[in-house]
Design brief:
Blueprint (H helix, E strand, L loop, with lengths): L5 H8 L17 E7 L2 E8 L7 H13 L6 E8 L16 E8 L7 H14 L4 E5 L7 H4 L9 E3 L3 E3 L1 E3 L2 E5 L14 H13 L6 E7 L6 H9 L4 E6 L3 H16 L4 E6 L4 E2 L6 E2 L6 H8 L3 E5 L4 H8 L4 H4 L4 H26 L9
Parallel strand pairs: 2-3, 4-10, 4-11, 5-9, 5-10, 11-12, 12-15
Antiparallel strand pairs: 1-2, 6-7, 8-9, 13-14
Length: about 375
C-alpha cells in the first residue's frame, strides 16, 4: 500500500473539470485545505458562485475519485460557497450592501428579457444566494406582476429617505410600478427617466445581497448609458431570440456594453424551438442557432437556450415563474444552469481583471 500525500490528492482533483468555471478545482484556486490522516483524506473546497443544488453531487464525485486512490480507506470532500463583492461596489452608499450587480438586457422588446430576469433571480436564490431584483424598465415595469405582488402595493419609507423593497418568493423587489398607478403611462423625457432610475437604485434600502439583478428596458438609450456611467455593474446578460431581426438588435446591445466597459457574461436564447403539445413535433419558428452564432461572433458564452413554451408565459403571468412554480421541471433546470453560469462568469471576470499586469513607465 503506497502512502498518500497532497500531491497525489491534487493530481486526482486535476482530472475533474468544474463545468461552470471550466477548470479543475486546483487550477481554479478552489482548494482551501487537504488534510491527510493515515488512510483518511479530508478536502475542503470553496466556490465563488452560488451552487447549492450542484455542490453536493460535485463533492460526492470528487470523494469517490479520491477514495479510488491506492492507500485511501475513506475520503470526505466539503464544498462551501463564498461570494465575493465586486470591487467598485462601495462607491455608491445605496449599494454598499450589494456584492454584485447583473444587468439583464435586450436590443429589442418581446424577446422574454423580463421573464429571464425574474427566473434568473429566483434560480440564484434557490442556489443559496441572497438576491434582489430592480425593475429598471421605467416605461413598462412588469416584475411586480411576475412576482405576484398585488396591484397598489407601496414600499415602506425608512428614515424619510429610503424605499424598503418588497419581498416576494424570498427575493427583494423594487419597481417603478410600486410608486405609480398601473394604468398611468410614464410620459417622460429621457432625463426624467434617468433621474427616476438613479433614485430607485440609490435610495432603495437593499439588505445584504449577493446579487442584484436589474431588468433593463429594451434598447441602447438613456437608461442603459446612465446605468453604465453611474452604477458598478459586474456584468450583463443579453437576451435574444434566434430571429435575424432580434439578433441584429442584440449585437447592438453587446457592442454598447463593451463600449462602456461592462463585461458581457453571455447570451440567453429564448423561443429557440417550439414543441407541439399534441404530436411532439419540434419546429424552429424563429430560426435556428442564432444565439449560438451571436455568442461565437463576440467570443462570449451561450448561457442558456429555452423553448417557446406556453408554460413559461402562464407561470410568469400568474406571479410564480417557472424556477419556483415547477422547480424540478426540465425548463427550471435550464434556469438553474443559467444561474450557476452567471455566477461563475462573474468569478472568472474578476479573476481576469486581477490577473492583468500593471504597466509602469520609468525614466531608465
Amino acid at each position: 500500500m503506497s502512502a498518500v500525500n497532497r500531491a497525489t490528492v491534487e493530481a486526482v482533483l486535476r482530472q475533474y473539470t468544474d463545468p461552470y468555471l471550466n477548470q479543475d478545482p486546483v487550477s481554479a484556486g478552489c482548494v482551501r485545505a487537504i488534510d491527510i490522516d493515515g488512510d483518511r483524506v479530508s478536502v475542503q473546497l470553496e466556490l465563488g458562485y452560488a451552487a447549492a443544488l450542484f455542490k453536493n453531487g460535485w463533492a460526492q464525485m470528487l470523494q469517490m475519485a479520491i477514495e479510488g486512490l491506492d492507500g485511501v480507506a475513506s475520503a470526505k470532500v466539503q464544498i462551501d460557497t463564498l461570494i465575493a463583492a465586486h470591487k467598485a461596489q462601495a462607491q455608491i452608499p445605496g449599494l454598499a450592501n450589494v456584492k454584485n450587480i447583473v444587468a439583464v438586457a435586450s436590443g429589442k422588446g418581446g424577446v422574454g428579457k423580463s421573464t429571464t430576469a425574474a427566473n434568473l433571480a429566483l434560480a440564484l436564490s434557490r442556489e443559496g444566494a441572497r438576491v434582489g431584483i430592480l425593475d429598471a424598465d421605467i416605461y413598462g415595469p412588469s416584475q411586480g406582476v411576475m412576482f405576484g405582488i398585488a396591484e397598489g402595493t407601496r414600499p415602506k419609507i425608512k428614515d424619510q429617505k429610503w424605499f424598503v423593497p418588497i419581498e416576494a418568493h424570498g427575493i427583494e423587489v423594487m419597481s417603478m410600478a410600486f410608486l405609480t398607478d398601473d394604468n398611468t403611462p410614464m410620459v417622460w423625457r429621457g432625463p426624467m427617466v434617468s433621474g427616476a432610475l438613479l433614485q430607485l437604485i440609490t435610495q432603495t434600502a437593499w439588505t445584504d445581497l449577493d446579487y442584484l439583478v436589474i431588468d433593463m428596458p429594451p434598447g441602447t438609450g438613456d437608461i442603459q448609458l446612465t446605468l453604465a456611467q453611474k452604477v458598478p455593474v459586474a456584468g450583463a446578460v443579453i437576451v435574444t431570440t434566434p430571429q435575424d431581426l432580434a439578433l441584429l438588435d442584440a449585437k447592438k446591445g453587446v457592442e454598447m456594453f463593451r463600449k462602456v466597459n461592462i463585461p458581457v457574461l453571455g447570451v440567453v436564447e429564448n423561443m429557440a424551438v417550439h414543441i407541439c403539445s399534441n404530436c411532439g413535433h419540434a419546429e424552429h419558428l424563429f430560426g435556428e442557432g442564432g444565439g449560438e452564432k451571436l455568442a461565437s461572433q463576440y467570443g462570449v458564452e451561450l448561457l442558456a437556450s429555452l423553448p417557446l413554451s406556453m408554460l413559461i408565459r402562464e407561470q410568469a403571468d400568474g406571479g410564480k415563474p417557472t424556477a419556483i412554480a415547477e422547480p424540478e421541471s426540465q425548463i427550471a433546470m435550464v434556469y438553474q444552469e443559467l444561474a450557476r453560469h452567471v455566477g461563475a462568469r462573474i468569478v472568472l471576470q474578476e479573476a481576469a481583471t486581477v490577473a492583468m499586469p500593471n504597466i509602469s513607465i520609468s525614466d531608465d
